[in-house]
Amino acid sequence: MNEYRYLTELSERYPVLKQTENDIKASYEIIREAYENGGKLLIAGNGGSCADAEHIVGELMKGFVKKRPVSEEMKEALIAADPSRGERLAGRLQQGLAAIALTGHPGLSTAFLNDVDGEMIYAQQITGFGKQGDVFLGITTSGTHVPYLKCPVAMALVKKEYAVPGTKAEADVRGRRIEAEVVPLPFYKRTK
């Protein structure tokens, strides 16, 4: 299977993606390497990005385009553990790619918000769930403060003559004028 087939199709359909293909491939390679080494993906976002995080986890934890049946070893173990239902379980369960949406733990999130620091809710969960070799994916699209980056981030449509990285601008965000700067995509580079 050509790993980049879908990216190629999307780039052809939406040419604006062409400029980010290498970044998307690099991100994919980081996640693929984590999975190959027994790691998992931790995902977070606020608002609509919270829903995106949950959706991505749903796609990873079950088969999507590529079906992932349980291993023969697991199938045999299920049948041995419960001869009457083991075959059905083995036929319906799927291997998942380990992923956790950090957005679905309201008890922990609200307790940490109340008792410690609301801006650290995702960091606390990464501390608890994460291990060496895992990957964190933070999603944002709203143009508001991003707790895991500790800064405001936005994506906006600007006229071509203003779309040069480094261009200073003002943005109207929910009725407030704020200073902004045009940066190349992706807007955030991981530092080691």
Explained architecture:
The structure is a single chain. By secondary structure, the chain is α/β, with parallel strands linked by helices. It is 40% helix and 15% strand. It contains seven helices and seven strands, in the order H-H-E-H-H-H-E-H-H-E-E-E-E-E. The protein has helices spanning 5-13, 21-36, 48-60, 72-81, 86-92, 106-117, 121-129; strands spanning 41-45, 99-101, 135-139, 145-146, 151-152, 168-173, 176-181. Strands 2-1-3 form a three-stranded parallel sheet, sandwiched between helices. Strands 4-5 form a two-stranded antiparallel sheet. A two-stranded antiparallel ribbon has the order 6-7. Strand 6 and strand 7 (176-181) form a beta hairpin. Helix 4 packs antiparallel against helix 5. The longest helix is centred in the N-terminal third of the chain and has 16 residues, at 21-36. The two termini are 32 Å apart.
Relative strand content: 15-25%
Number of helix segments?
7
- Helix/strand/pairing category: alpha/beta
What is the terminal separation in angstroms? 32 Å
Features:
single chain; about 190 residues; alpha/beta; 7 helices; about 15% strand; globular
